[in-house]
């Protein structure tokens, strides 16, 4: 399981202006690569870096 981060367009209900926001969706990966393969290592690195980025964004 990992978070998928995406942008979504919408309307600010207070001002009526168009707005762009960031949303997260929890996704399940039922067939991840073997972590001992180069693809698996890349998969883990990307997941860890994405989680670290999320944490650093929360602390800012």
Characterise the protein shown here.
The chain is α+β, with helices and mostly antiparallel strands and 60 residues long. The protein has one domain. It has one helix and two strands. It has a two-stranded antiparallel sheet with strand order 1-2. A hairpin with a 6-residue loop joins strand 1 and strand 2 (18-27). The two termini are 25 Å apart. The relative contact order is 0.20.
Compile the SSE list and pairings.
Elements: E1 2-11, E2 18-27, H1 38-59
Antiparallel strand pairs: 1-2
The parts where pLDDT drops under 50 for at least 5 residues are none
Instruction: Count every helix, treating DSSP H or I runs of 4 or more residues as helices.
Output: 1
The average pLDDT value, as a whole number, equals: 87
The ordered H/E elements are EEH
Label the structural class: alpha+beta
- Give the helix proportion (percent range): 25-40%
Give the overall shape, derived from the CA principal axes.
elongated
Give the oligomer, counting copies of the same chain as homo and different chains as hetero. single chain
Strand order of the largest sheet: 1-2
Q: Let me know the number of strands.
A: 2
Tell me the count of domains. Answer: 1
Radius of gyration: 16 Å
Strand content: 25-35%
Between the first and last Cα atoms, what is the distance in angstroms?
25 Å
TL;DR of this structure?
By secondary structure, the chain is of the alpha+beta class. It is built from one helix and two strands, in the order ββα. The protein has one domain.
